[in-house]
Amino acid sequence: MRNVSKALWSLVSLLSIGNAALAASSEADFRAAYAAADAAEHEAGRLRNQWIATEAALAEAKKAADNRDFDRAISAAKEAEALAKVSIFQATSEKAAWKHLEIH
Amino acid sequence: MRFWLITLAVLALSIAHRAGAAEGIDPATDARAFREYFVRKFPNVKLDDFANGPYALNEDMRRQWEEKEQFPPYEFSLETGKELFGTPFANGKSYADCFPEQGIGIRQNYPQFDEKSGKVITLELALNLCREANGEKAISYTGDDMAALTAYMAFTSRGKPFDIKIPDDPRAREAYEDGKRYFYTRRGQLNFSCATCHVQNPGERLRAEVLAPALGILNAMPIYRSEWGNMGTISRRFITCNSQVRGVPLEAQSDEYRDLEYFLSYVSNGLPISGPGSRP
Amino acid sequence: MTALDDSFPITRRLVLRGAGSIGLAGLSIVSFGTTPTLAAANDKYPEDAFKQKDGKEAIKLLYGRAAEPSEKIKLDAPEIAENGAVVPISVSTSLPEVTSIAFVVPENPNVLAAYYKIPEGTIPNVANRLKMAKTSNVIAIVESGGKLFSATKEVKVTVGGCGG
Amino acid sequence: MASSIRVRAITNGETTEVQTLIQHPMDSGFIKDDKGGFIPAHFIQELTFEHNGRPVFIADWGTAVSKDPYVKFAFKGANKGDDLKVSWIDNKGATDTATFKIQ
Q1: Does residue A18 form part of some domain?
Q2: Chains that contact D by 3+ CB pairs under 8 Å?
Q3: Looking at domain B26-280, which CATH architecture does it have?
Q4: B17: which of B79, B186, B200, C113 lies 20 to 30 Å off by Cα?
Q5: Residue A19, Cβ neighbours under 10 Å: how many?
Q6: Band (D26; pLDDT cuts 50, 70, 90)
């Protein structure tokens, strides 16, 4: 199970490249990052395929922002967005792929 | 690890793949193939015994189960269910008035396709519809009372074979097909479908537990799980299954779960109701 | 009080374990008295024995002596517990004049699980369901004709997951 | 309130087999609740079976007995129709008693 998470993490970090902002981040940056993550998670919800980890990362982002730790808040929001995007990818590809598992 | 890599590869490959136009939906053929798959996979298991889930597949577990069945831990819930079922609503009517045969020995006929609403009506849903029709508030689909009520109704149907009907109505066939799709669709961070555990790997241990075969899996519902320490409904089981693959569960009795129950019950037609059951 | 017999393998194992479990015992939320009482000798609930973190001490508190393995005890327990919350365990014995049967689970936070007094006329055959925190031996202690005998079986306990 | 005690006591003329299931949480004190605090220990300590006023089985239990505990034993000397009195007391002082007919 740990290995699964590890593989997933590398995927997530691939998708969230660019979140390593050097300068201290602002509230505006956080809002943008959070809005993007929230939109992606909303789409995953429309596809009925949200992930618990995404929800947790969104909550973490919000909490960090409440504590005015925007570096952490942005990194959590980016992670949430990346996770949501993988879940969207999963739901979209499964629209056809589920047939492979069917017993015939 | 290997599993996940393969999964990623499948995910990647499947982008290119597109299923052709919707083939004809043929539940009867599906159900035959479904049953044959399990019978071939477990040639030593009697067909009816699939209704006993993992206990049909593992001798050590079966002994523990048989010991527990001498005085099953769900006994208290079953009694509560009988009591709740017999208690009249404020208007003097009771659950019995909402069901054919006064609700006794009919569990094997649920879920049903309701031609009026065009939707699947599960037993849990029917119980709440009954309450609402009689001016009572709906009760939680994942709570103890619903578990107790369905336990009692299942108990009165023990041994009766599942008899799920798919009427000649395109909406009914679609509901069945949607349930099937939900069953085989990978979801959650673990990228598991229901079938990953309950078709591909029944009898295997996933961490602690021996996975139950999908064939007959709802016949034992509701179940007293030692892990829960109490009785839980089908709704509760679906929700925990989705959480276990790290997906956000859908609402209890959402269309997807209702259709899933329709599919899973239909493919187990002919197998006896064994609920209420007990499981690890 | 009779000293514990170090040739008894379970006892020896428990002694070794006892040394390692001091830290755990210190963390535990219940405190326990250290005055040994021979609970088996009277009808009172053996409170101190039930709070023991160490199998050797629990047995000593209950009976004041150690047990020796006996093949006349049949201990029935699963090889792998389907869930540690409910592990069916039973014991029967052909030993004569049985006055008590106890179940000890050395890896549990409180090692003594259950202690059954068997009056005359009652058959020395008990089945119950116990909790097991993790993989552990289960030890059945049978008091027969004033002597102590035991049987041991390992039960594997794994954590819960996607199952059922 | 229904009794917390369920008993099946069946005699074959010589021995009477008794199975009991009791509704009780049997909280060990080692389990945390949703808020991270420990659920206080709450468990049956003593369970007694009496036939014609004579104790035939006494169970002393600790925290490791499963929720809704079950126990089975057998004894000699009872007849069909005799009373079997069952009572328990837990660590908080709660008790329950019920009398059953041997079948």
Answers
A1: no
A2: B, C
A3: Orthogonal Bundle (1.10)
A4: B200
A5: 18
A6: very high
Is the pTM here over 0.90, yes or no?
no
The residue of chain D nearest to residue B225, with distances taken between CA atoms, is: D67
Contacts of D23 in chain B (CB under 8 A): 76
Nearest to C127 among D41, D72, D75 (CB): D72
Q: Does B208 touch chain C (CB under 8 A)?
A: yes
Domains in chain B: boundaries: 26-280
- B62 or C17, which is more confident? B62
D65 contacts on C by Cβ (under 8 Å): 113-114, 128-131
Residue C57 banded pLDDT, cuts 50, 70, 90: confident
Local structure of D11: helix, strand or coil: strand
- Structural domain containing residue D24: 5-101
Instruction: Establish if A15 belongs to a structural domain.
Output: no
Name residue D40's amino acid: P
Q: Which of D2, D19, D67 minimises the CB distance to B71?
A: D19
Residue A69 belongs to domain spanning: 25-95
- Is A30 part of a structural domain of the chain? yes
Indicate the average pLDDT of chain C.
Answer: 74
**B241 noted as active-site residue:** yes
Residue D52: give its domain's CATH number. Answer: 2.60.40.10
- The domains of chain C, with CATH numbers, are 9-155 (2.60.40.2470)
pLDDT at A8 (0 to 100):
52
CA distance B123 to chain A (A): 24
Look at strands D5-11 and B223-225 and give their pairing.
unpaired
Q: B112 Cβ partners below 8 Å, 6+ apart?
A: B120, B121, B126, B164, B165
The helix (run of H) or strand (run of E) holding residue B175 is helix B170-184
D56 touches chain C (CB under 8 A): yes
HSE-up (13 A, CA, CB side) for residue C122? 24
**For residue A89, is it within any domain?**
yes
